[in-house]
Amino acid sequence: QIVLHLSGMLVIHKPPDWEVDGKCREDEDYACDGPLALSSWLRATLSKSSCPVAWMPTLDFGFLHRLDVPSSGLILCGSTVTGLMMLRWQLDTYCIKREYLVFAHGLVLADFR
Question: What is the pTM of this model?
């Protein structure tokens, strides 16, 4: 699901069991038995003219970062080369902060660190 669509940039909600794929998946028709490719969903959702970076494996299909396959969360994505470079600049200059929230199931020992 696209949570926010700005000029050249997207915020995407990645559900569990989807893969934030990058250079390793260069063939857009790549099929595997593993996780679903978020880049394939992005290309099916947005046109090449509105999100050209989604067709560029050398730019990790526009994804700024990754999340583990079993987890869910927000993914920053450039929909244009300019938007992706602006996001990368913000990440490299520490303008983007990350916060993680973990939900646990079961008991955790008191001395666990």
Answer: 0.79
